[in-house]
């Protein structure tokens, strides 16, 4: 589950509007060598897309992103999501995920956020919005007082093929997330081969 993201070190952040796109997208990622994906709860189709992939694409580990309420956590879990993430740290959302036994990474951006997350029992944190919050330099600074706690980050927001290495080279970075290989135009225009190519390229650049 979450271990697979940590092994692959890259998690595509997917926004899907149509369930019909779920399988070709999962296939395109698999052809590129990636067997994990985060489907964000930003569309009405999110839960159905997760359910489709969880039941039809056994080789893919699917998680849910942008979980903003306990109800969404429940729906994600019911649909078959095996991990969850959020852009921020909402204790109610986190408690719900913990009560369901769902590995969950809340979003943090400041030292105060990091300490709150650690206090709530989380040590794998989404760092969002990574680029706007100071990028690798900010993560390096956060590593100073917190690396010894064992905390690790999954930066997302503003990561792309040009800057991904700067993040992956940091020891506090467990994995990175982003939309650059699965952006909504590529999905809307069904450019599956391009998604495969961009995925392959991202994995090769690790
Ligand atoms: C996320 O939720 O992680 C971000 O929307 C991804 O940001 P990106 O589009 O800049 O990769």
UniProtKB/TrEMBL annotation:
InterPro entries for this protein: Aldlse_KDPG_KHG (IPR000887), Aldolase_TIM (IPR013785), KDPG/KHG_AS_1 (IPR031337), KDPG/KHG_AS_2 (IPR031338)
Record organism: Haloferula sargassicola
Pathway annotation: Carbohydrate acid metabolism; 2-dehydro-3-deoxy-D-gluconate degradation; D-glyceraldehyde 3-phosphate and pyruvate from 2-dehydro-3-deoxy-D-gluconate: step 2/2
Pfam families: Aldolase
Subunit note: Homotrimer.
Official protein name in the record: 2-dehydro-3-deoxy-phosphogluconate aldolase
Family: Belongs to the KHG/KDPG aldolase family.
Gene3D superfamilies assigned to the protein according to its UniProt record, in alphabetical order: Aldolase class I
Signal peptide: none
The entry's keywords: Carbohydrate metabolism, Lyase, Schiff base
SUPFAM superfamilies per the UniProt record, alphabetical: Aldolase (SSF51569)
Statement: the UniProt record of this protein carries the keyword Repeat: no
EC number: 4.1.2.14
Catalytic activity: 2-dehydro-3-deoxy-6-phospho-D-gluconate = D-glyceraldehyde 3-phosphate + pyruvate
